[in-house]
């Protein structure tokens, strides 16, 4: 059985609504950057695309840490990247590189991603988020040699001396 995540019931970062929303933003940024005046400004285009990609990459990397505190810190970085995208969109709108309609659509996607990210961070930093992480992290079924210890992992997250929680 694969390790469970710090988010109850989610075992793949692709299943996180936060990642899905930010990935939708990234895909739309890639489209707009290839078909508009942004494509001619290679430095700005690169900055916009990298910021959008950084947001999704940091959600994925934080998820893989299997630790709510670390995951929340990676989400801080993802939030900064998504906010950088919003700033780039404002710059592009003011320069006339994207239409007001494209700006509104992309900004809406960015704000949706940021809202789901904030909710996920609140959960990860809550007592419930930390308890669920301890309960589900690396669950591999009962350990037959010790029925009172349900984990087969030598790094058992239920260990009260675990400094990562």
Write structural notes for this entry:
It is a single chain. This protein is an all-alpha fold and 165 residues long. The chain has one domain: 23S rRNA-intervening sequence (de novo design (two linked rop proteins), Up-down Bundle), CATH 1.20.1440.60. The protein contains 5 helices and no strands. It has helices spanning 17-35, 42-63, 68-94, 100-124, 127-136. It is elongated and about 50 Å long. It starts with 16 loop residues before the first helix and ends in a 29-residue tail after the last helix. Mean pLDDT is 83; it is low at 1-6 and 140-165.
Radius of gyration: 19 Å
Helix and strand content put the structural class at: mainly alpha
Total helix count?
5
**Average pLDDT, to the nearest integer?**
83
Largest sheet: none
The end-to-end span amounts to 23 Å
The H-and-E topology, N to C, reads as HHHHH
CATH class: Mainly Alpha
Hey, roughly how much beta strand do the residues contain? Answer: under 5%
CATH architecture: Up-down Bundle
CATH fold naming? de novo design (two linked rop proteins)
Query: CATH homologous superfamily, by name?
Result: 23S rRNA-intervening sequence
Q: How many strands appear in the DSSP assignment?
A: 0
Uncertain regions: pLDDT < 50 for 5+ in a row? 1-6, 140-165
Apparent shape: elongated
Helical percentage: 55-70%
- How many discrete structural domains? 1
